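Final report, closing paragraph on structural work. Over the funding period we assembled a curated collection of sequence-structure pairs, and we close with a single example.
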Amino acid sequence: MNFACGVLTHKAFGSDRFHMLRQTVRSLLAAFSADVPVYVLDNDSPDESPTRIRQEFGSIDRVRLRFARHPDGNHTPGRGHNTLLDWMMHDEQGRADVLLFSDDDVRWREDAGERLDLIYSAPPSGAWDESVVILCGYLEPDFHWATPRARAEPGGVPVLIRDSVPSAAWTYRVKCTPNWPVVHGAAPAYKAWKSGGPTPVEETFASDSRLCETLRESRLKVAAADLADHLGCGVSTHNNSPMANVRPLDRKHWRI
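Its predicted structure, as stored:
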């Protein structure tokens, strides 16, 4: 299984999150073999982040850098996701089987690449089948919009089918199931998408949950596995506050 990794970042330096970006990129370099590229997209940061990113990662052969500019002022996660996805799809030209998308505050485990290979190489079994089109790399708490529905174990790796999973750690096949065209209208503001690949998301702040809802309505599924840690919970570059009184995921019940 061939992988390509992408990291989306915005104002990492000005929001005192650059150490998280560093951990994100370094963890991906460690988790995947030397032939797996890591794309880093700065999503129109107005601060010193582009300069710092060049200084930190510019000399690393496996790291590819791009600095997006959006004249319309839209630097939402949704716009960044689509820009990064478009770049990776174009640059890979069919080399990658699976794309990994990471926010700049996710530390991937050393065995994440190996476990993702086991998952994606596994045959359909139980709740893990071709209707699962997104696998997230970390497990959110028990949010009401992310209710766990089933457990599967593709390749011996525990996976939860959930109502929604955060785009901060999405992975997906480049050649998705034949059902993907059903949801190609999910992002009307985005340019027409090339057929055969993952759908873009709405270019808003809540793009991931909206797409998961659309997928669910189309009888497709999203899942999550315990492959990474979310470092930036409560430290947002977009000034959204963390939710209070959130129940932790019942890992004992789900045998995770």
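Helices lie at 18-31, 49-57, 77-92, 112-121, 207-217, 251-254. The CA atoms of residues 13 and 49 lie 5 Å apart. We thank the funder for supporting this effort.
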